[in-house]
Amino acid sequence: MTGLRYASWSRQLLIISALIVAPFAIEMLLGRSWLRITDVALLYVMLALGLNIVVGFAGLLDLGYIAFFAVGAYSYALLASPQLAIHAPVLVIIPVGAALAALFGIALGAPTLRLRGDYLAIVTLGFGEIIRVLLNNLNRPINITNGPQGITRIDPLHISQFSFGHSHSLGGITFTPLHQYYLIFLAFVLITILISVRLEHSRIGRAWRAIRDDELAAQAMGIHTRNLKLLAFAMGASFGGVAGCLFASFQGFISPESFQLIDSVMILCMVVLGGIGHIGGVILGALLLTILPETLRYIGPLQQQIFGTVYIDPADLRMLLFGLALVLMMLLRPRGLWPKRQLTGQLTNRGG
Description:
Blueprint lengths: L1 H29 L1 H26 L8 H14 E2 L4 E2 L2 H20 L7 H21 L20 E2 L2 E2 L4 E3 L2 E3 L1 H24 L2 H11 L1 H6 L4 H27 L9 H14 L4 H17 L3 H9 L6 H19 L8 H11 L1
Helix pairs in contact: 1-2, 1-6, 2-6, 2-9, 2-10, 2-11, 3-4, 3-5, 3-9, 4-9, 7-9, 10-11
């Protein structure tokens, strides 16, 4: 027993060490642009894990999840930029962003508790668009969000006098802002994974799964479905709010165009592609759908080098291949690339 426990801790320590060294290896082998893509991929992992609480655990379809990302991003931007002349501490802004996103999650969930399927999808889709349009028009009569021009000069993450927006040296190793943001994003991703795992195996997680599988049966067993649905919306939204705060500090600029409907669809596809309800599968889906499309950018220069001209625009090809991949997934692996073993076993037994 002690040997198994030691092996488990050794494996976890090895994985964490590899993750810490990863940004330096990525920059050395692939360049700084890929390190930035990796940073963004970690943010999408957080978003996908947050949406997985709503869709995977509780079985509630949400096509407006990007709205909570926007709420968190604008919370940080307004409280850490010259826009409102407020430069609040990060340790205050991030909890505020998470709390505001959770409140918006409850505001979305409360009127949709009786809706299911397509109706719930349409309402959540509309909610996401309402938030984007609202942010786009809150520049008059009082300029709050600066409208379509967005908010610039957003403060980077900083704790006391330590700023993640400047390079620092430690033991002869130079940590650039991209390295430092990678590490802070990785820390938040690990915290998100820990919370997700604890939720999944808690009484609340079991109640969410009961609601997902059969809401009427869950009600008959005494589960308070209304409160638990609201809790799922609030928890998932709070993860999106934290990711939005980190995104705003990382970019230094945000605008309503950063939070389009297609982004909500992409996050949902990450959850579906990886494996709904499976934390490892969701992480895999988020990494694949963030990193793989970027590799298609090289197709344009490759065509130019071989044929002397670009016949297929890489952006069009990316969407074509993305759609084809989703169709093949639905046909060949409808439960995702990495589904939960328990779910797969149940389906096999039923089929038998």
